[in-house]
Design goal:
Elements lengths: L16 H4 L6 H28 L15 H12 L3 H10 L14
Helix pairs in contact: 2-3, 2-4
């Protein structure tokens, strides 16, 4: 997933959960959907960040040497400035990009 192209806000916005939950039918189910999606996004972001920072990993046993790598700092700052996973998940839900289903509600 490309987090750079998301149009999610970087700050929190007050939203009417009752109107957002109409397609789902239940506010608590909506919160559960958004929570699960935000966990997925969080794992993806963490994996991507670790992959990028792995390039700068130093495997020296010398504790006296501390390297301050500018590129590593810039990568970390970029990920800190990204919208939080919950905000990205909420924006995806509002844009109808989230697929969800409840197996207990499906007809047998």
């Amino acid at each position: 997933m490309d987090f750079k192209k998301t149009n999610a806000p970087t700050n929190t916005i007050t939203r009417d959960m009752n109107s957002m939950s109409e397609p789902v039918g239940n506010v608590y189910e909506l919160v559960s959907i958004l929570g699960k999606r935000s966990n997925q996004i969080s794992v993806e972001m963490k994996h991507e960040l670790e992959k990028k920072l792995q390039e700068f990993a130093s495997y020296n046993d010398n504790l006296e040497e501390v390297f301050e790598n500018r590129e590593q700092i810039e990568i970390s700052r970029f990920y800190e400035k990204l919208p939080k996973p919950v905000l990205i998940a909420t924006q995806e839900y509002l844009e109808k990009k989230v697929f969800y289903r409840n197996p207990s509600k499906m007809k047998k």
